[in-house]
Amino acid sequence: MDKNNTCKMIETLKEYAEFIRPYKDAINLVRIRLEALDADYGHLHSHNPIHQIIHRVKSLDSIVKKLAKRGYEADLESAREYLTDIAGIRVITYYQQDVYEVARALKSCLDIVKESDYIKNPKPSGYRSYHMIVVVPIHYLKSIEYYPVEVQIRTLTMDCWANIEHQLHYKTLKNDFSGKISKKFQEYSEELNAISLKMEAIYSEQNRQLSEFKNETPL
Questions:
Q1: Helices (H) then strands (E): counts for the chain
Q2: 3-state secondary structure 84-127
Q3: What pLDDT, in 10s, does the model give residues 127-166?
Q4: How many CA atoms lie within 13 Å of 46's alpha carbon, on the beta-carbon side?
Q5: Pairing state between β 50-57 and 130-139
Q6: Residue 197, C-beta contacts closer than 8 angstroms, at least 6 positions apart
Q7: DSSP β-ladder status, 130-139 and 144-155
């Protein structure tokens, strides 16, 4: 690689590092909110709904590919204007009711610009998750700027299914996946969701019995 190309690459990486910094700050702020909400819920209800929080920012390569796929100029200004998933957080909960509790809690403390409920309305592939785009204020010395963060909230079983489906999707020929395999995935998604709801019913029944026991037990 010649000197000019090396200098150009270094400059591009520096620009990306500066560009991505506020998105990382936005992720940290959302993560802190989620951890506080989880702790507060655990204190009030003796149950922490969040199993795991995973976060990431898109790489420069991923940003360029997504812009090109959508027909936009492959530069950082276009990324700032047109992409809302540069910063992303995935929240893994135990039960489906936890998904909606986390979503409600986020709505109470952050501005939501978009919601997609793929639990009540699964994708044709069988994918289930609750998606939100939240807008986070980043405070600088002389200004406040707002950055979007994509939040995906799903249960452990939904996350397990999504990861396996994603891996198999890229290992399978396109024509095969859109035929019999796709139909099987829809069926398996329904079966796994049914099992998850049965486990949740056990949890709800245990909570009900515990609540009745506490109410009946004299002080």
A1: 7, 5
A2: CCCEEEEEEECCHHHHHHHHHHHHHHCEEEEEEECCCCCCCCCC
A3: 999 999 999 999 988 889 999 999 999 999 999 999 888 7
A4: 5
A5: unpaired
A6: 96
A7: antiparallel
